[in-house]
Amino acid sequence: MWELSISVSGKNLDIAKFVYQTLKTHAEEFDAVVTCYEECDNFYVVFGCPQAQQNRASMMLERCVIKVICNFYKEKFLTENLHLPLHETISLTAFKKALINFDKETDFYMISKNLDLDKNLHLDSFYYFKLKALRDKWSELVSLANENSDYLVSSDAFFDLLKFLIDNLEVCEDEINVFEEDNGYHISPNNQDIPNETLSQEGLISSLIELSPKKINLFCRNDNDNTAGFLSKIFEERINISYNKTIEKLHL
Questions:
Q1: Cα dihedral 225→78→23→187 (10° resolution)
Q2: What is the pTM of this model?
Q3: Helix or strand or coil: residue 190?
């Protein structure tokens, strides 16, 4: 049996939950057992699988750790260090999400080359002691944005930069359908990285920026949907919008 323990400080419960749920989702394909417990103000997630599955499982575990660093830790870094003019919340959320996904191939490489999956991995220690070069890279991006904050007071300038960032993200999906529902939005077909659930406006925009599809088909119930207007501004020709009050038939 090969085992790996991934731990995180108690203040990062959301990270522990994400790691546990991710590993549980993949447990069956590796004949693995996943457990979690709390001890000395730390959360531990333990993954164990047959020795023969170690190499395959290590690749999945590496992807999980990389996603944690690039999503949770990078978002916290941006929140603490990014100082931009006040815009509406959804615009700032989209801008931050675009920065999180900007040049992520390099982020992945820098994390991977420093990652050693050897019995015990404390995520906070790994992030603070092994990834200084990565944080320096993020600092350069944040400094560039902060230094131009006066320019970004203009709504047009802000959206020009946001669109530039989104246009330069790696395309992860060819085509995605989005359906407006009674209490939110649903992405279909379901991507393994997107929970099969109804998304809020903020959740939808964040998901679409992360997936960065070549084409988005958005089916709205009426032409007063402000989400459609916002998405049109940031994705432009990549989005097709249909207004149809009988969307249920399309969804089926």
A1: 10
A2: 0.87
A3: coil
Amino acid letter, residue 60: M
Taking a C-beta distance cutoff of 8 angstroms, is the pair 185, 179 a contact?
yes
Judge whether residue 202 has pLDDT over 80. Answer: yes
Place of tokens 């207007």: 229
Q: Is the dihedral of CA 211, 109, 25, 43 positive or negative?
A: negative
Sheet with 173-181, edge to edge strand ranges = 184-188, 173-181, 213-220, 239-243
- CA 155 to chain centroid: 25
Could you give the C-alpha distances from 38 to 47, 117, 127, 149, in angstroms and in order?
Answer: 15, 21, 20, 42
Three-state SS at 11: helix
pLDDT digits 0-9 by tens, 47-84: 999 999 999 999 999 999 999 999 999 999 999 999 88
How far is CA 158 from its chain centroid? 22
